[in-house]
């Protein structure tokens, strides 16, 4: 087959060039490049200098060489070509295949693929970073929660002990200030934990039946005292048609209203604060309630309203007012979580109005009577009841021992970790164990599990155990009960709550 016949088999993307062994172009078309017959192939493009090395030892058999994606330029023409060189004893055939369009298409595709891979990798790394960041934040808050609540428990506990002693007026005032600031710190910790739960999607609403009027009465009672102290009016207007019992998360409803009311009283020095509660609509067993809280306080500048619900937002005012900067951010998140709505309007020096709409359900049935907290008393005994306190914080040890010994009905032994607690119960019988959960060597959960499962002696295995924890949630409660504890109490706690739980467990054990 002649070179011309070979050329005719290809389309316009092909250029066939016949070259003599001394490098002169003897035959060519101009499909790709305008190279003239009689000119030197070596002058056409530097790439073809490669022929010289192949011609030094051509051999007897024809040789073929393939070079993909060669960038060839000639005058105004620039192309990406696959180059084939066929060398025999008579001449050289050069086949150029124009790969320019396909090359750019593939290059663009590869670019897109690379960019897509990079975007996916970036997104994966970002997600991994966010997950690690969220994990770090949650661990940090959990550790801070425990580390702060432990000394806070001692501070509030000793204040209670101090309040029951004979104090001068000045000492009473100092005690009151310490207690107020400690409670403020405790509220800040609670707010931080709530924000963390909301952002991580771990906050779950509880639908339970509650007495709506009791919730309202609590606000009326507490804020009437605040209003009286500040010398302003607190007005309430409650729609009497609202059902007595509703179904919803009463704790979160309280948190929403309490935060907004607290702000209203903080920023109102004269005039009044009004709480109006009306039924917005009712359909079958569902209703929406509108809570309107308006004050005659300092108001909020219009440009600040859009930032009102952001975390740690504090606007400059003439009066320095304490606060966590988290309250309204929590309010907004809780309202959204409850599928409610919140709007605010304000005018500087005239006051602010919050309108909050929240959905509820209600039962069309006769309400059950409210359960009263059952009273317990220690069983009659000629000897004192012996308590084992398992706690590694020295201050908390002293506080609990002070509370119990002051009652006159208890002996208290001390163990600083779970391992020591096990040794104590093997040497002496106890009427109850107070078990801190975060202990070295053997923690409170494991120690409780061992007590419940490793002993055939029922005096040991069935001893009542109350856990100390800094986490006040259902998950922690379930974990305590699953480990074998009878009850748990959160830090910081009030003396009456601790004593109630201790007396209840001892009384229940005696009744068995």
TrEMBL record:
Q: What is this protein called?
A: histidine kinase
Entry annotated with the keyword Transferase: yes
Tell me what organism the protein belongs to: Aquimarina hainanensis
Q: Which domain of life is it from?
A: Bacteria
Domain named Response regulatory is located at: 386-506
Q: Name one GO molecular function term.
A: kinase activity
Q: Which SMART domains match?
A: HATPase_c, HisKA, REC
SUPFAM superfamilies listed in its UniProt record? ATPase domain of HSP90 chaperone/DNA topoisomerase II/histidine kinase, CheY-like, Homodimeric domain of signal transducing histidine kinase
| Phosphoprotein listed as a keyword | yes
**This protein's UniProt keywords:** Kinase, Phosphoprotein, Transferase, Two-component regulatory system
What are the 4-aspartylphosphate sites (modified residues) in this protein?
A: 436
Q: What's the catalysed reaction?
A: ATP + protein L-histidine = ADP + protein N-phospho-L-histidine
According to its UniProt record, the EC number is 2.7.13.3
Q: Could you tell me which residue ranges the Histidine kinase domain spans? A: 143-362
InterPro entries reported in the protein's UniProt record: CheY-like_superfamily, HATPase_C_sf, HATPase_dom, His_kinase_dom, HisK_dim/P_dom, HisK_dim/P_sf, Sig_transdc_His_kin-like_C, Sig_transdc_resp-reg_receiver
């Amino acid at each position: 087959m002649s070179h011309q016949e070979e050329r005719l088999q290809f389309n316009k993307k092909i250029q066939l060039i016949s070259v003599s062994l001394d490098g002169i172009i003897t035959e060519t078309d101009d499909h790709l490049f305008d190279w003239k017959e009689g000119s030197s192939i070596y002058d056409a493009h530097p790439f073809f200098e490669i022929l010289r090395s192949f011609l030094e030892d051509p051999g007897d058999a024809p040789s073929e060489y393939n070079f993909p994606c060669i960038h060839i330029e000639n005058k105004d023409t620039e192309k990406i070509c696959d180059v084939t060189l066929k060398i025999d004893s008579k001449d050289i055939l050069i086949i150029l295949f124009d790969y320019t369009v396909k090359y750019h298409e593939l290059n663009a595709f590869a670019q897109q693929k690379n960019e897509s891979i990079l975007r996916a990798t970036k997104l994966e790394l970002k997600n991994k970073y966010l997950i690690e960041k969220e994990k770090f934040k949650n661990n940090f808050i959990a550790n801070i929660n425990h580390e702060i609540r432990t000394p806070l428990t001692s501070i509030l506990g000793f204040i209670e002990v101090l309040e029951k002693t004979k104090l001068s007026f000045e000492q009473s005032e100092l005690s009151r200030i310490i207690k107020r600031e400690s409670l403020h710190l405790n509220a800040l910790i609670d707010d931080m934990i709530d924000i963390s739960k909301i952002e991580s999607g771990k906050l779950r609403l509880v639908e339970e039946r509650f007495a709506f009027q009791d919730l309202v009465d609590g606000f009326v009672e507490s804020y009437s005292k605040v209003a009286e102290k500040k010398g302003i009016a607190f007005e309430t207007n409650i729609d009497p048609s609202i059902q007595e019992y509703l179904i919803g998360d009463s704790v979160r409803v309280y948190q929403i209203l309490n935060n907004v009311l607290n702000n209203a009283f903080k920023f109102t020095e004269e005039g009044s604060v009004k709480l109006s509660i009306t039924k917005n609509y009712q359909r079958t067993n569902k209703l929406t309630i509108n809570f309107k809280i308006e004050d005659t306080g300092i108001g909020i500048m219009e440009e600040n309203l859009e930032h009102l619900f952001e975390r740690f937002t504090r606007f400059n005012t003439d009066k320095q007012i304490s606060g966590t900067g988290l309250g309204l951010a929590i309010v907004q998140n809780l309202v959204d979580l409850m599928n409610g709505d919140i709007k605010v309007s304000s005018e500087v020096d005239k006051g602010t109005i919050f309108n909050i709409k929240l959905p509820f359900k209600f039962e069309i049935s006769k309400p059950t009577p409210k359960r009263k907290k059952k009273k317990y008393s220690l069983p009659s005994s000629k000897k004192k009841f012996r308590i084992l306190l398992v706690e590694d914080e020295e201050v908390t040890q002293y506080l609990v021992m002070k509370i119990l010994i002051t009652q006159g009905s208890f002996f208290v032994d001390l163990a600083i970790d779970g391992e020591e607690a096990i040794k104590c119960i093997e040497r002496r019988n106890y009427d109850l164990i107070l078990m801190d959960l975060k202990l070295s060597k053997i923690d409170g959960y494991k120690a409780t599990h061992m007590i419940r499962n490793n002993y055939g002696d029922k005096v040991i295995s069935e001893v009542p155990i109350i856990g100390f924890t800094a986490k006040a949630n259902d998950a922690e409660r379930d974990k305590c009960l699953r480990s074998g504890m009878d009850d748990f109490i959160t830090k910081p706690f009030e003396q009456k709550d601790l004593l109630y739980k201790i007396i209840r467990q001892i009384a229940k054990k005696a009744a068995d």
